[in-house]
Structure formats: C-alpha cells, structure tokens
UniProtKB/TrEMBL annotation:
The protein, known as: Ectonucleoside triphosphate diphosphohydrolase 1
Catalytic function, reaction form: GDP + H2O = GMP + phosphate + H(+); UTP + H2O = UDP + phosphate + H(+); a ribonucleoside 5'-diphosphate + H2O = a ribonucleoside 5'-phosphate + phosphate + H(+); a ribonucleoside 5'-triphosphate + 2 H2O = a ribonucleoside 5'-phosphate + 2 phosphate + 2 H(+)
EC number: 3.6.1.5
Active site: E174 (proton acceptor)
Subunit structure: Homodimer; disulfide-linked.
MF term (GO), any: ATP binding
Length: 496
C-alpha cells in the first residue's frame, strides 16, 4: 500500500501541477486552432456579386455571379449564384414597341435585388450583352436597334446596381468569352493545362473557338484572339457564323426548299404526318434569307414532314458553301479554320437538343448516334406527340436540330467519326452555366490577371493542419522536458 503511494507521489503525472499544466496546454491548443479556423471562415463568408444579362436572339437570361470578397484579387473562385430566364422573346423582337424590351427585364432584375444583400447593391456591376438577334436587327434596321438599347438601358439604370453598360457583343467576343468560361470553370487556365475548345450553338449564330498549335494568327488574323492569362499566352482561333444558329439555320433550310415559291413542300427534317401552314413573309422575315425570297404566287405554303434523316442531311448540306476557300483550309462559307485540336465542350442548344434526343454520350460510335437519330426522324408525328409533353413548336424541330448539329460538326467543322468522341455535350460546369457571360464578367472586372498571382504556399486546410500538429508537438516536447527534469525538482531530501 505504502509502495503504491510512493510510486504515485514519484510519478509526476499524478501531481496537481502537471495536471494543471496539461489542462492549460490543451486549452491553449484548442483556442489557437479555433481562432485560426474562425478567423478565416468569417472572411470567406463575405461575397461580392456581379450581374450579366445575356440578351440572345431567342430570349434573355440574367446570371448572378459571386466570389469571396477578400479574394477578388484574382484567387477566389467565381461561381454562378442565380439564373433567371426573362419571360417572352429576345429583346430584338420588340422593334414595334421598344419600351417593352426594357419592361421585359424587370421581373428578373427584381429577383436579382432579392438574391443580393441590399448593402452590396451599389457596388454590384450590372452588364448587358446582346448577341446575334441584335446583330441581325442592327443590319436590318440600325435605328430600331438603337431604340431597343435605349429602352433597355433606361430599365437597367432604374435599379440600384452599378450599371456598366448595355452593348452589342461582336461574334468574336462571344466565341472567345465562351472559351474563357469553359476553361476557367475547368481550372485549366491557372495551371496552364491544355485548353478545351468551345462550341456554342445559339438561335441566330454559332461559335467555334479553340487553340491549335498550327495557328498563330498569321493566316486569317480576323479569327485570332490573343490572351495572356495567369502567366500563360494563348492565341485562340474563333469564328462566329451569323445566321447559323439553329433557328436561322432552319429558315435557311426552308428557304432552300421554297426557292421556287411552291404551295407545299415535303420537308425530310420534319416527322411524317407533320402538316403546318406557314406564311412566306414569316419565313423570309430575316436578313439571313430575305434576299432569297421567291417571286411569291401564294402567301402561304403547306409544310409537310417527310421524316428522312439522310435526305434531311442533304438539305442541310445545301445551306453551307463548301466550294470557295482562299486559305490553306476552310470550314465552310470560305471561312478559314485550322486543324481541330484537343477536347471540345459543346453547350447551349448543342446540349438542349442532344439531351432531349438522349444522344449526349459521345463514347457511343457516331454511326450508332446517326442511326438513332435516323430512327427518331422516321417516327411518325402522331407517335412523337403522344410520347412527349412539350410545346409542339419545339417538339417538331428536334429532328431538324439534331441533324443540323451533326452536319455542322461533321461537314462544317470537319470532325470525324474518330474525333467525335473528343466532344462533350455540357450544360453546366461546377453549377455554373457554360456560355459567354461568365468570361465576359471576368474580363470586365479584371478578375483574370495576366500574370500568375502570388499564392500562399499552403492551402487553408494544410495551413490549419500544420499549425495544429506543430502546436501539439511543441506541447508534447514541453511535457517531456518537464518530465525529464521532474526528479531533480522533486527529489525529497533522503534521511539516511
Ligand atoms: N430544348 C430547349 N431549347 C432551348 C432551351 N433554351 C433555349 N433553347 C433554344 O436553343 C437555342 C439557343 O438558345 P440560346 O443559347 O439561349 O441562344 P440565344 O442566346 O437566344 O441566341 P444567340 O443570340 O444566337 O446566341 C434557341 O433556339 C432556343 O430557343 C431549353 O431550355 N430547352
């Protein structure tokens, strides 16, 4: 019993001083780590915001982006916080009543007010970029396009955000910013990885953008956009084909089939049994086709479906011009295109259409994809209507749109059955929509620096872990030293 007591007394771990030191040490470590974690988390929870309106030919979308407030100096990730689809058509359709173009944006702007903390409104930049619909309107009627922009600007200025302008984007900008978005979201730019090409299919225009080792901008310099991002140089090939978005391409195909002004056509790109009366004036009411308008005998024509994929491909091929090329190589319509290189992300209508058709898997051989689309096109209209509950106007066009997409890629851009698998149909990357808007905002807010920013050598998690481990280690060393010194301090005078 007494030996046990002696041992207990000699063992420093049983002394109150040691216990107190241990408790204080543990509390110190817990406090240190807690302060580290809380200090950093409080900062990371504050955000800055930016709003971009994509005024497209078919409709307008509003996107809110957010990024950590203290990291806008180039290291914080910008992500999409909210998306609002403006009801109705694109702003270019309001030429008769321009003020309505402005009014159409109000409900989404109100949503933006609700989604961004009020105190951040005045410092939130607000941009509007208009694309191919307004490009066509400008070609057709420049003063009408000015009126629409005025009305839109009036509405945007009426909101408490920091209005930065409403402008027409050049096709080249639309292509280049789409490419920036895809590669930014994929984290390819900071690391200088091989980039992904961008394929964007809109309603009125379509863009192709990629980096090719065989393109430095000397041939067809109009297609070159040079960037220096995070310390890496890029010369991007980009081209926007006006009138080759899927809605205008459909007009081109209908114009091709109604050249002679017939009263009825059997269109292989529409399902068997499809039967609609169309007005010539409505089909030809676009600068993409207005010069092809036939000497009309009738006001309308009957649009019948033929449901034949191969014939549909032939009709679509006829809207491309493959004969003239003054460069070393061309895609179509005499436009230069260097050899395709690397992976491609295909978004907007590429995704909507192929997703509806269940054909987004590009590991499936192209031959099989074509066969499936051919079967879909051959399905009678009555059956298609029974199987899908979506507005008939959209439903009727998927055979055309799917065939257009494959023809544009294979015949227009020169993808092959081998390179088809390098395309990925995408809608979102990490919860942000693929499209030009994010790249546009990153550029205008200088969020992508030309040079790589100085980054801390450790990530936040590694930093906290290292500090924790070091604190524990120091404490253990301290205790061990204390332990080794203990007998000296505690040796009681021995009575001999
Ligand atoms: N199926 C389907 N089609 C859509 C959807 N959203 C848009 N579309 C169609 O896809 C096409 C392209 O749409 P967007 O990418 O918004 O194109 P846009 O901005 O209006 O056109 P551009 O001005 O040429 O860029 C248009 O024909 C739209 O009608 C969708 O959610 N589902």
């Amino acid at each position: 019993m007494s030996t046990q007591r002696e041992m207990k007394e000699r063992n420093p771990w049983h002394r109150p001083v040691t216990i107190i030191i241990t408790v204080i040490g543990v509390i110190a470590i817990v406090t240190l780590v807690t302060v580290l974690v809380i200090q950093n988390r409080t900062i990371a929870q504050k955000y800055k915001y930016g709003i971009v309106l994509d005024a497209g030919s078919s409709h307008t979308s509003l996107y809110i982006y957010q990024w950590p407030a203290e990291k806008d100096n180039n290291t914080g990730r910008v992500e999409q916080k909210h998306h609002c689809q403006v009801a109705g058509k694109g702003i270019s359709s309001y030429t008769a009543t321009p003020y309505k173009a402005g009014e159409s944006l109000i409900s989404c702007l109100k949503e933006a007010k609700e989604n961004i903390p009020q105190k951040m409104h005045p410092e939130t930049p607000l941009y509007l970029g208009a694309t191919a619909g307004m490009r066509l309107l400008k070609l057709e009627n420049s003063s009408a396009s000015d009126e629409v922009f005025k009305a839109v600007e009036k509405t945007l200025r009426g909101f408490p955000f920091s209005y930065q302008g409403a402008r027409l984007l050049a096709g080249q900008e639309e292509g280049a910013f789409g490419w920036v978005t895809v590669n930014y979201l994929d984290d390819r730019l900071t690391q200088g990885l091989e980039t992904t090409g961008a394929l964007d299919l809109g309603g009125a225009s379509t863009q192709i953008s990629f980096v090719s080792d065989e393109y430095n901008g000397s041939e067809s310099p109009d297609n070159a956009v040079s960037f220096r991002l995070y310390g890496y140089d890029y010369t991007l090939y980009t081209h926007s084909f006006l009138c080759y978005g899927k809605d205008q391409a459909l007009r081109l195909a209908l114009a091709h089939q109604t050249k002679s002004g017939p009263t009825a056509i059997t269109d292989p790109c529409f399902h068997n049994g499809y039967n609609e009366t169309r007005h010539y004036a409505a089909v030809y009411d676009s600068p993409c086709v207005s010069d092809q308008k036939p000497q009309i005998v009738s006001e309308t024509f009957i649009h019948l479906g033929g449901g034949n994929f191969t014939q549909c491909q032939e009709v679509i091929k006829s809207i491309f011009n493959f004969t003239s090329c003054r460069y070393s190589r061309c895609s179509f319509n005499g436009i230069f295109q260097p050899p395709l290189q690397g992976q491609f992300g295909a978004f907007s209508a590429y995704f909507f259409v192929m997703n509806f058709l269940n054909l987004t898997d590009t590991s499936v051989p192209l031959k099989t994809v074509m066969q499936k689309l051919s079967d879909y096109c051959a399905t009678p209209w009555t059956q298609i209507k029974k199987e899908h509950d979506i507005p008939l106007k959209y439903l009727a066009e998927y055979c055309f749109s799917g065939t257009y997409i494959l023809t544009l890629m294979m015949e227009g851009y020169n993808f092959t059955s081998e390179t088809y698998s390098s395309i990925k149909y995408i809608q979102k990357i990490k919860n942000s929509d693929a499209g030009w808007t994010l790249g546009y905002m990153l550029n205008l807010t200088n969020m992508i620096p030309a040079e790589a920013p100085d980054s801390p050598p450790l990530t936040y998690t590694s930093y906290v872990s290292v500090v924790t481990v070091m604190a524990i280690l120091l404490f253990v060393i301290f205790i061990l030293i204390l332990y080794s010194l203990w007998p000296k301090f505690n040796t009681e005078p021995k009575i001999i």
